[in-house]
What we know:
Aldehyde Oxidoreductase, domain 4; globular
Amino acid sequence: MNTNMSASPRIGDPIDRFDGEAKVTGSARYAAEHFPPGLLYGWIVSSSVTRGRVTGIDETAARGVPGVVEVISHRNRRQLPGGDDSYKDEMGASGKPFRPLFDDKVLFSGQPVALVVAHTLEAARDGASLIRVSYESAIHNTDFALALAEQFAPQSDPRESQEPERRGVPDQALAQSPRHHAATYCHPAEHHNPMEMHAATVIWEPGDRLSVYDKTQGTRNAQSWLARVFGLKEDQVRVRSEFVGGAFGSGLRPQYHVFLAALAALMLQRPVRVGMTRQQMFTHVYRPPAVQSVALGANADGSLNAIVNNATHTTSRFESYTQTVVDWGLTHYKCPNASGVYTLAPVDTYTPGDMRAPGAATGVNLFEIAMDELAYAAGVDPLALRLVNYADRDEMHDRPYTSKALREALEAGAQRFGWEARVSAPRSMREGRELVGWGMATGVWEASFEKTSARARLAQDGTLEVACAMTDIGTGTATVMAQVAGDTLGVPLERIRVRLGDSDLPESPVEGGSWGAASSGAAVHLACRAVGTQLHKIAAGMAPSPIAGAAFDGVAFGDGHMMLKTDPARRVSLADIVRASGKDCIEAEQAAEPDQGESADKAPKAKNTHSAVFVEVRIDEELPIVRVTRIVIAVAAGRIINSKTARSQVIGGAVMAVGMALHEETVMDHRFGRFMTHNFADYHIPVNADIPGIEVLFIDEPDAEVSPLGVKGVGEIGVVGTAAAVANAIYHATGKRVRSLPVTMDKLLG
Ligand code: MOS
């Protein structure tokens, strides 16, 4: 039950998910659940070679299957505008984006080479199985270890400077430090594995208008991409993604399924659906495998004197995917001498990309294992090590934070967990047959706020509609929008309607980067305030005016009314005000945006969320099965709009981190250049039995500068540091340090 159904909601309340009922009853419809009349089904034929070209496609048998309508490939596709630029999307990397069915070239295993379209899904699938494609294969390499020989420094990404970072004299300082630790860490490729697989239903209308239901994190991004790719005007394409069954970054860039569905719809002038199979979900974006070498020099008390932090991960051969990996370690701790080199290594796969806390899940987690090792090398408690090296300023850019309550998070988390009782020597805590390990780490992520617009509309019956193109990828954006609207205009939840995930609605960026709540919340707040000022003007002119003489500052909104702050009994219902206006509704659209031209690197203050994570594991001494038995995460993320959905986000991130620490690994067969663990039997993710109670503490962190509502966002922080804390707890339990994630049983044996 909602805690306060008829009272208007307040920012901070633990309100139930606004769309929860629609989701659990199945009335929420996802991209592949729209059934326009005459719908055709496409089935994707994936390349079985990794690099080379298609020399022939035998379609005869496929075309003979009853119900098959068309087989589309590069040989007969509709003409497309030339040039690569049209294929670049808002979230694209530098390089030449992949163009599906463009020519005979094969760039990665699983690349779509044909689409079979039929009246039924079964016929399309049957037909696709009968397509015979012949190839001319070229030599490929998908092995990261071999690709390291080809590594290069990314330079051309306009989004961020990739110059090597350096301050002081790190190499010299390293040699002179009395305490040292140096080691190399790595994690494998991981896939997002959202529950809802990528799919699009595209409805063609005369005049080549496309109405698209897509699984995407960005309706506007998908809209403009489709328009440019097919040479259409933006207003010919409408993209809707009202519900998204998880994405974690896999839906940031438009994927090939939506291209194929739109292409077939345009060619056949019919509605077409194309979905990926679970196996095909392993043929596009993934978190790239990474290696990170960390060298730390410290004084006898553990205070850092030198950091050398270098990392490399894969990219595709056609695009340079970059993320922030090494900077975190250089920014996060007080240290006079530091350097970091970041490089990419090309492999013959599709371009890897953002996956929950991209860059930090790699760069912070691996660094935080190294910090744990330094704690032992220096003989300092891991928590004490974080405190002695605590940075009050952003060390890399030498600037203050808008706020940073990590110290409070470390203290609150440690206290809640009972860290004080920890015996520091490995293998020193046990219960029965089990070794007990306690580990900790810190996390850091960006607190971003992106330009976003929203519209608010109050009708004569007192119902309020708020609208924004942003998607809700399962994070609770719709709930947060309703809550901010209700708080601003004093409208009860049951009278609020939220519209989102539609490119026709006011402009929004993709939902990602943990900026959804800060950005859509700010836009909704501004739009509702603008409606509020109009209502105030109208109410002031009513005869008699219930708020006579009161300025806007003198009125409050609550329970569907406007009232005098000084005398709440003098009130008027919002519905009555709208009726008094003589209009059907009072509406306003507003854009919330950060200061002009301020890039995150150049801003006068650093904007970050922080966390302190404490983990307990229990491990059978003979058969080292790791059980995570407790997790406490203290999060400093500014103002929390909804303590319930925010908590869910942090828990979700922590579950993903347990996966990263213990289970997740996409294994590739390099002979075929193909990800082989492409199902949930082979690609292991945590299940309920793997997850203990996770306690989330939100630290009070007032921040008037980070974003208009003081919100920092929590979608990603839960995964950052948590994987390290699990790995560190395993070391504490067993005395065995595993530097390559995931820490599977075989690595603990022997
Ligand atoms: Mo996130 S990786 O920006 O969906």
